[in-house]
Amino acid sequence: MSGDVVRVVLADDQRLVRAGFRSILDGEPDIEVVGEAADGAEALELVRHSRPGVVLMDVRMPELDGLEATRRIVADPRLAGVRVVILTTFDLDEYVYGALRAGASGFLVKDTEPMELIHAVRVVARGDALIAPSVTRRLISEIAGRVAKPAPSPRLNALTEREREVLGLVAAGLSNDEIAARLVLSPATAKTHVSRIMTKLDARDRAQLVVLAYEAGLVRPGWLG
Question: Is the pLDDT confidence value at 104 over 50?
Answer without folding.
Answer: yes
